[in-house]
Design goal:
- The structure is a single chain.
- By secondary structure, the protein is mainly alpha-helical.
- The chain has three domains: 44 residues; 179 residues, no CATH class; 113 residues, no CATH class.
- Helix content is 61%, strand content 6%.
- The protein has eleven helices and three strands, in the order H-H-H-H-H-H-H-H-H-H-H-E-E-E.
- Strand 1 and strand 2 form a beta hairpin.
- Helix 6 packs antiparallel against helix 7.
């Protein structure tokens, strides 16, 4: 509304024969800002918009570049570690025994990729459109500084990962797995590095015409999609992950129940038994409800977290007892093997006398 009234006044004053300087002085004395007056007078007189300087929109461009930089760093880092996880599982090294039963790290890397990579593609696409519409911005200091920041971060990632790999090489990991990890680092970190370096060297008149952007974009999409498919193959579907969480909770519940039963039957003497132990200080609880009621340290959960049905507790003798639960998936891990179980019902037997240690 103000801009229209300002333009109307300028047009009226010009029709009365006033020059620009007189109109400007009148508006300044009335409290109008110099910038508003200049823009209104330009729009009244000129048929062409005033061109933007090289650094126009610096804050907006800086936001796009910084978000692109952050999402690229997250994508490259998570993709490298995800590929390392694959290689460690597919090509285990006997000199470096590791256990990969837990897939939580793979899930974290997948989660980072699912969020960061689309954001990176979106930001780079917006920047490309911006520079296609305003080629003069290609020479802006904001673009050059933040592009070199991306190159610096990518180079640091590349150098850091290579240092780590050489460290493992000096420890004896000289296998095909090591060579594949080097290739992963060179490809994953080298791809964005080469793209930004080449894009920075493009002349303004070639920026919108080159196929460089689409080539690197589709190469990146192909690599990330293949890595995500492989990651889902390792972790399974979200439904499987939910079943794993339920099974973990069942095992934790049985651990707590077992621990509290031992606390109940031995009381304060459990920490310092006098071998050989021939009888319990207190009798075994009759039911799981008794275990929950008599718990000394932690009241256990005595029902299945998924079905709501109680776990099975049986006293097989004066000092032996059994705990049973029904599991959705099998567990065959290399640590804490006592709690491994098949699909379906599994019972665990305990002797309170033997565990009084």
């Amino acid at each position: 509304m103000q801009s229209s009234s300002l333009s109307s006044f300028i047009a009226h004053a010009r029709s009365k024969g006033m020059d620009h300087q007189t109109i400007r002085m009148l508006l300044l004395s009335a409290g109008w800002k110099e910038k508003d007056i200049s823009q209104a007078m330009a729009s009244e007189t000129l048929d062409m918009a005033v061109p933007l300087p090289h650094d126009a929109g610096s804050a907006r461009d800086a936001f796009f570049h910084l978000l692109s930089f952050t999402s690229l760093t997250a994508t490259v880092t998570s993709l490298i570690f995800l590929c390392f996880d694959f290689l460690n599982r597919i090509l285990p090294d006997a000199a470096f025994p590791n256990y990969y039963d837990d897939v939580s790290s793979v899930r974290w890397e997948l989660a980072i990729l699912v969020v960061s990579f689309p954001v990176f593609l979106w930001m780079t696409r917006l920047l490309q459109k911006e520079y296609t519409m305003h080629p003069e911005k290609l020479a802006s200091g904001v673009r050059r500084w933040l592009t070199y920041l991306i190159l610096f971060a990518t180079a640091c990632t590349l150098i850091g990962d290579l240092i780590t790999l050489i460290f493992y090489l000096l420890q004896g990991e000289f296998t095909i797995r090591f060579l594949l990890k080097v290739a992963v680092v060179l490809i994953v970190a080298g791809l964005p590095f080469s793209y930004y370096l080449n894009a920075l060297r493009l002349p303004p008149d070639q920026y919108a015409k080159t196929s460089l952007h689409s080539q690197y974009r589709w190469a990146g999409i192909a690599i990330v999609v293949m890595a995500m498919v492989a990651g889902l193959f390792v972790t399974g579907s979200p439904l499987r992950g939910r079943s794993e969480r339920f099974d973990e909770q069942r095992v934790n519940d049985l651990r707590t129940i077992q621990s509290e039963i031992l606390n109940i039957v031995w009381g304060n003497e459990r920490a310092m038994p006098t071998p050989p132990v021939k009888e319990l200080t207190n009798p075994l609880p009759v039911t799981l409800e008794d275990v929950a009621a008599q718990a000394l340290y932690q009241r256990p959960n005595i029902v299945d977290p998924e079905t709501g049905l109680p776990y099975t507790y049986t006293r097989t003798s004066d000092h032996d007892f059994r705990l049973c639960a029904t599991f959705s998936l099998s567990r065959d891990q290399q640590y804490d093997v006592f709690w491994n179980h098949p699909v379906g019902e599994k019972c665990f037997d305990f002797d309170a006398l033997e565990q009084a240690k």
